[in-house]
């Protein structure tokens, strides 16, 4: 309720209105949901005489009001984040409008910042760079009340297309983001391994792509024949008590190919039974071809092998999409993947195909596109690896990054456990995050750099998920929504859940350590104030200012001699 002078009156009805609208937006419900007769009847039972807001008010003033409220809360949270990781992506919506999204990620949370209509802008590297800098400048101006600090932008993660790689080059050559890490999405790189092996045009793995083609033919056949598919589902239910789906792959999502072959493999017995039950007078050529594939025992043996070989890749790709997948996980994941795929292919009919992919440069070429020098820095900053030999070529890559940061010599001392790192307390910590928090006293610049990497997310999945939610919000039924309205809906749907979860989250070990340090600092400040108060009381007896006593005191300056834990909070 709002008075003529614009002052809002907080009543129970207005709170209910806002609660219903928030449930509508965050649950992706129709704006007209509360105006439906049965919903009105239910609301009347809960509160007699209450009239819910109609769709025009929900999609109008209430959307704007709740967006503004959520934006204010979210900005307050972002101001507390030391390392902002930015992800950017582009797509088209239901109305064929080209839109770009910016999300903010941390190892714990992902947030939507904006969704913008690019209209007729040419999306080349130069224009994307200028647009991105403009959007981030507006964000930082809001966060810091006009006093812009670009250093809080920790990284930029995008897909691995050539345009985005050019954006990285422009930003690192001359821009306020020269300091930021440019991170290729690890999930994209892993998905492209599927493409290397399965793409009918480029793959050299003849057996692999042949078996995949036959599995894909089976799925396509049943999806185009609902009656045959119903017969198959009935057989599966009779055999196992429930139905299982044949999953089609998505052309632009190479990771979905594993789901296809695995779904066919899991329905093996039902498919064989279905093929045996088909009437003999069925002579359509495609049907005969599919039955021939299903009844071929060699097909099933190789398909089972293919599932085994691809399962580690599927798991690695899923792990790379996790919110807490940081840059420290990338190289270990790729090394583990190579070992597991090679091992899985041993003694199978796919062995030659997989061995050729790894031995003849296919995997190496893919890894070299994905793994940058900054990944190697992260890999070798893990204290568990100081005993492992560091190759000279990799060492030079690391040096090229660390030397300009004035931390190269600290890195050498860290590797050799000498200098400031000799018998340092940090070696008592096994957790990498705690290790570098402890090391902040002895190597502040290197610890600050390591801390940035620890908080660097290695994927752009949050931007893609924002587009998935956009497609749920902006549908054919809602095709009249403007991009600005969809932006507000997405902001509420994504960020309200993040705000809610943050209220209920338990602190991580490193947060607990920082909280303890903050508490130490608070106690120290209180003791300092108490000491000053005592001095002032004593000085008031002879009218001598307390400040004179402090200046004349031989004791160290209180502010300069703050506890080590307190100083560590100021690092980075």
From TrEMBL:
SUPFAM superfamilies: Ribonuclease H-like. Residues 426-493 form the HAT C-terminal dimerisation domain. InterPro entries: HATC_C_dom, RNaseH-like_sf, ZnF_BED_domain_contain. It comes from Talaromyces marneffei (strain ATCC 18224 / CBS 334.59 / QM 7333). This is HAT C-terminal dimerisation domain-containing protein. It comes from the Eukaryota. Keywords: Metal-binding, Nucleus, Zinc, Zinc-finger. The lineage of its organism: Eukaryota, Fungi, Dikarya, Ascomycota, Pezizomycotina. It is found in: Nucleus. Pfam families: Dimer_Tnp_hAT (PF05699). One of its GO terms (cellular component) is nucleus. GO terms for molecular function: protein dimerization activity; zinc ion binding. Its main location: nucleus.
